[in-house]
Amino acid sequence: MKAIKATLLVAGLFFIMGGTAIAKEKDVNKALIGRFAEEVFVKKDLSEVERYVRADYIQHNPLVKQGSAGFKEFFAAWFAAVPDWNYSLKKIVAEGDEVWVYGTYSGTLEKEWLGIPGNGQKYSFDAVDIFRVQDGKLAEHWDVMDIYGLFRQLGVIK
What we know:
One of its GO terms (biological process) is polyketide metabolic process. This protein is of the alpha+beta class.
């Protein structure tokens, strides 16, 4: 009986400790994404990208080249085309090594971007960005965004 109690006690401790480690990983990853969003998206400081994004960053959005260099190139062009570029983070959810971020992108298209001529048109659209974290940095990215709404607002489609 004592052996069973000891086994259950040890198993319970491993379960609790494992749950604590998982909760801590979620909190650490959410904090990482929060800092990344603040530094890179809100402050538009692309010099911070290497601090948060792995050089071999995998990008699943076909408009953005691979790696941290591809990330910087895409956002440098977007920031230049939209001087009042704004990002509003609304919610962060973490599960394991993945972090889901819901936010709103907005601004005024003043210069050409993605082949769309600058037209002074204001836009605002929502997106969910999904990041995989590896070794304390962003390793992979997927997104789901309201491209139809963005292109409609910019006059690309009616």
